[in-house]
Amino acid sequence: MSNLGVPELLIIALVLVLLFGAKKLPEMARGVGRSLRIFKSETAKLREDDDDNHTVQAQAQAPAQPQPQPAQPQQIQAVPAPTLSAEEQARQLEEQAARLRASAASQAEKRV
Predict the structure, then answer these.
(1) How far apart, in whole angstroms, are the C-alpha atoms of residue 39 and residue 34?
(2) pLDDT digit string (tens) for 47-61?
(3) Are 87 and 34 in contact (CB under 8 A)?
(4) At what angle do helices 24-61 and 86-111 cross, to 10 degrees?
(5) Where do the record's region annotations for Disordered lie (predicted)?
(6) Distance separating alpha carbons of residues 112 and 100, to the nearest angstrom
(7) Is the alpha carbon torsion for 21, 23, 29, 34 positive or negative?
(8) Is this model's pTM higher than 0.70 or not?
């Protein structure tokens, strides 16, 4: 496998600009970045699930010994708000921006 030098990288960059245009490249890079973040978070969740499964199996294999627990008053636990994925956040921001643009356009029409 040959090593890519500076001239080869410049040629590849030029071909990408010619194929996709200078305006599309930043959008594509953002999309790739979002995809990588989502992929990373999903693989991290899979690893956590695997770790949880190993601890549950280890606890199941250990002999069960009842341990007295001190009486504690019951506490109401707050339910955390559901976290949104990066794609959902981006979609919500785009919708909000569209609403703001529409309201700004209607205000501009009222002024005229």
Answers:
(1) 9
(2) 888 777 767 666 666
(3) yes
(4) 140
(5) 43-112
(6) 19
(7) negative
(8) no
What b/e sequence results for 81-105 when a residue is b if at least 16 CB atoms lie within 10 Å of its CB, and e otherwise?
A: eeeeeeeeeeeeeeeeeeeeeeeee
Give the pair of three-digit tokens for residue 92: 């919500």
> For the chain, which residues make up each domain, given as ranges?
1-60
Contact 20, 28 (CB under 8 A): yes
* H or E segment and range at residue 81: none
Phi-psi region of 21 (alpha: psi -120 to 50; beta: other; left: phi over 0): left
| SS3 of residue 59 by DSSP | helix
Instruction: Count CA atoms within 13 Å of residue 58 on its CB side.
Output: 6
